[in-house]
Amino acid sequence: MMGRAHIIIGTGVSWSVLVLQGYDVTLPAAAAAVIGSLLPDIDEPNSLLLSRTMPRKLLRWVQILTLVGAVIVFMAGVFSYPWDWILAGIMAIVAWIPSRSLRKVILFALGAGFAWYGGAYSPWNYIAGSLLVICTIVPHRGLTHTLYGAVAWTGLLYGTTAAYGDSIWLAGGIAYIVHLLADSLTNNGIKPLPPLNLRLRFRLMSTGTKKGARVENICIALTLLLVTVAYIFRSV
User: Are 201 and 188 contacting, i.e. CB atoms less than 8 angstroms apart?
Assistant: First the structure.
């Protein structure tokens, strides 16, 4: 499914579950649901989540600054030969790679930074950083589209937010799982428990086709109906 459909369906279902269970849909819980609904696609550099957090204009600035940095490293002599040549060369290469690959490089650098520096302040930073690094390596609809990914995300949320109540980690975890279920409707489906050769695939749609758009619209309509019913029952 497309990113916007994932947002509507994932957040709608998670909010409905919270409401029916008597939880308040707070702003942090709503944010966790939105992120959780998109997070499985973090292994796709052109996904809605990464294309919005790292738009092309930002990538152009990163490329310009990286190229300037390469010149400074080469000219300033901060590092001894041959490391100044090697580092400047790497930076110059990064400055010219396509947007898709550059997003992966930035994601890898952010993950490594979280794990290396943030780990000293909290072990959750190390775990989050390590997961980001892994996401730059695995193929699309790989590890992030498994129950392992759902457990890792929900566990990370629980460990960092449980002190503020259960609504945040529940909203984020439910939205993540709904994303996986939505992708199981496609022709490719998902493999929820690798290395087991089990594929969850209902073959109801193909993303980007008219039939796929119809299925998405039906799922969105059902989600909106669920949200309406949930809030009606809550108010009774």
Answer: yes
